[in-house]
């Protein structure tokens, strides 16, 4: 099989690429940057014959993927704008996310029955209602959607975190609408991970270029004071998330379903600080220790990651392993 992966030079996309390659699949990565694609290929000489790249400059233009689908049987759509230093919420976050989905799905639909399945990376941001305190014992499941309106998402009054939540919700909705309205011959699986952390396998030349979620975790190791507050209490390791994507592609019964891949172990940046101080000599100095465990009240609710374990067969790594693997790797870069 031959799988097209968008966002393949990003943090999560590169792990998806590696998981597919290790299982023997051929992979076509799409990126805006030929240099990053070349760098990833050069770093994987053993997979030279299984990996090729296509440069798609602006993936929001309908039609740009049409010419890169030759021989492709399945698509994993990971690419979406994920950064918070925006000046225009609609132009930089919301519309690119939605149009990227429409663009990849319309190209897939033109392939007729050649494409069997599309897996898409949505986000727990499309699930969680951050403005409501859930009742004690509440557990979010894949049936939940954040209640943001499009107008609020794009409003200049909204900060970029709100706009990002809207971008993920409306991009995922666009995907479900597309397969329903066009009656596509492929089916869709969406994954809604919470915070994703872990070692990087994509090109990261400097610490400043680390992806959004890992850079917050790294800031703890670098001595952030006060520690960042966790927006959601749930997380997953990028390697486990990659496994979930590929299992979502290969499990017939997953078709048409939405999943939340998430470890059942809660996390906080205080816990990360403790792990870093305990595991690294330099960490004792760097992390100030000027915090109390659980000092900042993190929203308390459960997140159903068990359905993914059961239905996709994914086992979750412990938070300690994720923190040690990322922080050890980035320390060597810093
Ligand atoms: P990265 O920023 O590392 O990767 C995002 C990728 O998307 C980049 O490689 C980039 O590809 C591509 N991309 C971004 N904007 C555009 C655009 N306007 N046009 C074309 N391509 C674009 O982030 P992550 O790997 O962390 O995120 C990947 C996905 O996972 C996103 O959909 C994100 O919403 C989702 N997610 C991430 C979480 C996290 O904690 N990290 C949590 C939940 C969901 P290139 O530069 O090569 O063109």
From TrEMBL:
InterPro entries in UniProt: Epimerase_deHydtase, NAD(P)-bd_dom_sf, NAD(P)_dehydrat-like
Ranges of residues in domain NAD-dependent epimerase/dehydratase: 3-257
Recorded superkingdom: Eukaryota
CDD domains tied to this protein: AR_SDR_e
The entry's keywords: Oxidoreductase
Designated name of the protein: NAD-dependent epimerase/dehydratase domain-containing protein
Gene3D superfamilies the UniProt entry points to: NAD(P)-binding Rossmann-like Domain (3.40.50.720)
Oxidoreductase among keywords: yes
Molecular-function GO term, any one: oxidoreductase activity, acting on the CH-OH group of donors, NAD or NADP as acceptor
Organism expressing this protein natively: Penicillium antarcticum
Family: Belongs to the NAD(P)-dependent epimerase/dehydratase family. Dihydroflavonol-4-reductase subfamily.
Pfam families: Epimerase (PF01370)
């Amino acid at each position: 099989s031959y799988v097209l992966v968008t966002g393949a030079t990003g943090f999560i996309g590169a792990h998806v690429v590696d998981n597919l390659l290790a299982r023997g699949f051929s992979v076509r990565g799409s990126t805006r940057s030929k240099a990053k694609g070349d760098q990833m290929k050069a770093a994987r000489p053993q997979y030279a014959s299984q990996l090729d790249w296509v440069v798609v400059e602006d993936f929001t233009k309908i039609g740009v993927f049409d010419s890169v689908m030759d021989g492709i049987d399945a698509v994993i759509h990971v690419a979406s704008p994920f950064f918070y230093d925006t000046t225009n919420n609609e132009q930089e976050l919301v519309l690119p996310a939605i149009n990227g989905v429409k663009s990849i799905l319309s190209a897939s639909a033109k392939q007729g029955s050649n494409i069997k399945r599309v897996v898409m990376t949505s986000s727990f941001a499309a699930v969680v209602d951050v403005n409501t305190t859930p009742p004690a014992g509440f557990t979010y499941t894949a049936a939940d959607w954040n209640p943001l309106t499009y107008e609020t998402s794009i409003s200049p009054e909204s900060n970029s975190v709100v706009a990002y939540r809207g971008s993920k919700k409306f991009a995922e909705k666009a995907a479900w609408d597309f397969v329903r309205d066009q009656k596509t011959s492929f089916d869709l699986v969406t994954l809604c991970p919470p915070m994703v952390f872990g070692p990087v396998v994509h090109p990261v030349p400097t610490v400043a270029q680390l992806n959004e979620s890992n850079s917050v975790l790294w800031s703890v190791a670098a001595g952030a004071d006060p520690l960042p507050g966790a927006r959601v209490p749930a997380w997953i390791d990028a390697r486990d998330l990659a496994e979930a994507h590929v299992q979502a592609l290969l499990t017939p019964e997953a078709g048409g379903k939405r999943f939340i891949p998430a470890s059942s172990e809660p996390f906080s940046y205080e816990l990360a600080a403790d792990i870093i101080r305990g595991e690294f000599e330099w960490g004792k100095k760097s992390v100030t220790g000027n915090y109390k465990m659980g000092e900042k009240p993190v929203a308390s609710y459960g997140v159903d990651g068990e359905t993914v374990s059961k239905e996709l067969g994914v086992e979750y790594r412990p938070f300690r392993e994720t923190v040690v693997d990322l922080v050890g790797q980035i320390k060597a870069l810093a």
